[in-house]
Amino acid sequence: MNCEICGRKLVSKNIVQIGKAKLIVCNDCKKFGSNVVQTTSKQPTPKVAYVPKKIVKKAHEVNLPEYTIREDYAEIIKKGRENMGMTQDMLASTVGERLSVIKKIESGKMKPTIELAKKIEKLLKVSLLEIDSSKFEIGKLSKKSDLTVADILDIKED
């Protein structure tokens, strides 16, 4: 290997920085730059935070109320849409759904998903969802996290 400044054969390898360039130079030319300390080329690997699996809860594991679609959903959606002065096509494009799906929902041939029902509720200002009461039993608790205020308080009647 040769010096990158003068071209002489290198006896010892010196790395210097001149401006923004790092050069390999001979002992005589190393005075033209500042000495660069050579480090290992291996870069440290980024550390990834470890999250135990027990802490991460999936959506179906979280104790959220479960909703059902009201039986009269088709009538409610149709009346709500008409009250807002919207066509089926306008409703479909606003909630991001196909026109054929909206037609099937309004005719009662297809139930909307919970997510779509929430979008329609918000847009038309109607109520389509009900909390599924069949999932709850009064007086029986399956887990400690199912406690309610009434379970903790001692209610007295006079």
Cα distance spanning the termini: 100 Å
What is the CATH architecture descriptor of one domain? Orthogonal Bundle
Return Rg in Å.
36 Å
Helix content bin: 25-40%
The low-pLDDT segments are: 138-142
Number of helices: 5
Question: How does the major sheet shape up?
Answer: 3 strands, antiparallel
CATH topology term of one domain = 434 Repressor (Amino-terminal Domain)
CATH superfamily of one domain: lambda repressor-like DNA-binding domains
- Summed over residues and divided by their number, the pLDDT gives a mean of 78
Structural class: alpha+beta
DSSP summary, beta strand count: 5
CATH class of one domain: Mainly Alpha
Within the largest sheet, what's the order of strands?
A: 2-1-3
Shape: rod-shaped
**Strand-residue fraction?**
5-15%
Write down the secondary-structure element order: EEEEHHHHEH
